[in-house]
Write a structure and sequence with these properties.
The structure is a homodimer.
Chain A: E1 2-8, H1 36-42, E2 53-58, H2 62-68, E3 77-80, H3 86-100, E4 105-110, E5 113-115, H4 118-133, E6 137-142, E7 153-163, E8 166-175, H5 180-189, E9 192-202, H6 203-213, H7 215-225, H8 233-240, H9 249-252, E10 260-265, E11 269-271, H10 275-281, E12 290-292, E13 295-298, E14 304-306, E15 311-315, E16 320-324, E17 328-333, H11 340-349
Parallel strand pairs in A: 1-2, 1-4, 2-3, 6-10, 12-14, 13-15, 14-16
Antiparallel strand pairs in A: 4-9, 5-11, 6-9, 7-8, 7-9, 8-10, 16-17
Helix pairs in contact in A: 3-6, 3-7, 6-7, 7-8
Chain lengths: ~350, ~350
């Protein structure tokens, strides 16, 4: 059977002041009236019945996400005591799926990306499942729209044929976030995709890879798995998880794995990582402004106003990001949007805990 | 006897969103922990007992100002049904003072200016009262600190001698708000003061001038005066005031008056008319920022943050004015601060009444 696992453990500090420790990115209504997590579930509901949609999230966010998607069974929320990176999150989901269905096909998805062409997305998942059925670890490759230095890249290798209309390749290699020159060369070559962090594999196959490539973590996983559905589970994972080494699935597994396949896909995928990403996602008005909430402007251009209840008034501003929340306001030029992370660090250092 | 009359009828649209129809400039804590109105009373309390301090204000603001200065007798708040400009406001105060004391000396002051050297201010008032005792209409002249085109100017005429250490002059003429070239010439000549809208005169003298120069208004005043301290007063003023022609004391009286004197004074006077004026008044930090309320900044320079309860976070901004209130936020470059008036007009036109 096919199972979806939505990774919803992130925090999203670059979306401060909207994102907070208790209100992470996946729980925010950034695009329309649904949260990022709701969008992530919505787009797979035509493919998966709710009882086969699992969610990996952190202890402090579980109740909120459950409330946002009450269609999903509560037991499908797999809770990490704390985040240890994508490899442990996927490993934890794997032991739950294995127990349920030893032949499970696992579709690993994210809640912090937005996809405009959801039909295409579902079609590529169907294709990926076919490729994964042959034993491949399949990763979706995002067709690059710019020589971004913010993503890892995947070099396409030899063809695995066309599956469900999608040309499919062996992965030649994974490339870390490159410099601009390298990124430009890669994008121009047409042989690279962005690594979008979405994977499809048999749970047996990823289990083998954990055992082979991350033996220490595998031993920890086995120890947790032994207590699954027993009264000792909570105590066991609470004891073991803080000792798990932080690791990404890319570093920990994918780069060293055998039989990795990539299916490049152009489905209007956007990483909603920062305020700047909303500028590319949301429709702008004739002045280049994206205005959410109540706004009145004079001579206002190329500005993102992300408001809520209050009126935001702007005069003579250009290229600004203005985010208003109940207890904090951010004003920042578009080109400095990455520094929002620094702002959060500064708040931490300054002990401004109420705003974290 | 000497009586102070504080003109507190303005609105202060250029201080939106802090100033509102129901919360005018004089009621705001713009400088320190006292409102502009409280500052205006504070600085004359060493000269006037509270029962000789009168306040002219509008119907909708009277209760708020009374609450801000409960030391003043409630009957000293002279309420206009609606604002008709400074000439009617002064005329209305004059009929109240005349009835109380036919030989009253009237000191007309404002609540929308800030004065740093309050000792000097009180000394010049003492000097002005001496000059007014001789029958002059005395106006305080503000020593210009720049060739501002935002003020009217007063040309000093022949000397009236030195009174209480203040050189005193006949007024040669009043000059309307000039262009920059004219303003520069006037300031360079040393023969001009800014017109600060503060006046000292015997109530008899201003009464004569109203009769001579504004006969229609004078007749209306006499009609209101006839009902003073009678049950008909409210009905009378409510009937007459809407028909009073709007007029300033400068146009209506001062420009055509006989025996006008000016006492130039350098007392750290600032017109608190707009957000920009606070930039000159409040002390800036090492980065040129003036930060009121909770603020955290990264690369923030020459910026005024006028906050309240919420955290204002700024990254990479320069020369901005950011004003945060319970229900509205303004973001505007310093050099556009005069356009705040346009913003208020735009809100009116757009029917955004809750924010006016």
């Amino acid at each position: 059977m096919y199972y979806a696992v939505i990774m919803a453990g992130g925090s999203g500090t670059r979306l401060w002041p909207l994102s907070r420790q208790r209100r992470p990115k996946q729980a925010l209504k950034l695009i329309g009236q649904r949260t990022m997590f709701q969008h992530a579930v919505d787009r797979i509901l035509p493919l998966f019945p709710p009882d086969r949609i699992f969610v990996v999230t952190r202890h402090e966010h579980a109740a909120m996400l459950m409330a946002q998607m009450s269609e999903l069974p509560a037991e499908n929320f797999i809770v990490e005591p704390e985040g240890r990176g994508t490899a442990p999150a996927i490993g934890l989901a794997a032991i739950h799926l294995r127990q349920k269905d030893s032949d499970a096909m696992m579709v690993v998805l994210t809640a912090d990306h937005f996809i405009t062409d959801t039909e295409c997305f579902r079609q590529v998942l169907v294709a990926a499942a076919q490729v994964a059925a042959d034993g491949h670890l399949v990763t979706l490759g995002i067709k690059p729209t710019s020589p971004s230095t913010g993503f890892g890249y995947i070099h396409h290798g030899s063809s695995l044929g066309i599956v469900n209309n999608f040309p499919t390749f062996r992965v030649e290699r994974f490339v870390e976030k490159p410099d601009l020159e390298t990124a430009t060369q890669m994008v121009d070559s047409g042989e690279y995709s962005w690594n979008g962090g979405m994977f499809i594999w048999r749970v047996k196959r990823i289990w083998e890879e954990f055992e082979r490539q991350m033996p220490q973590f595998f031993a920890q996983l086995v120890e947790v798995a032994a207590t699954l559905k027993t009264p000792q589970y909570e105590a066991t994972i609470s004891r073991i998880w803080p000792r798990v080494t932080k690791q990404t699935i890319d570093y920990g597994v994918m780069e060293g794995a055998d039989d990795v396949a990539v299916i490049p896909v152009d489905m209007g995928w956007t990483d909603v990582g920062s305020w700047g990403s909303l500028l590319t996602l949301l429709p702008a008005d004739g002045d280049g402004n994206i205005l959410i909430g109540s706004h009145v402007g004079i001579d206002t251009h190329d500005t993102l106003v992300f408001g809520d209840k209050r009126l935001i008034a702007t005069i003579g501003v250009q290229g600004l990001v203005i985010v208003d929340t109940d207890d904090a306001v951010l004003v920042c030029p578009k080109e400095r949007e990455q520094a929002v992370r620094e702002m959060v660090d500064k708040l931490k250092q300054g002990g401004f805990n109420q705003w974290l």
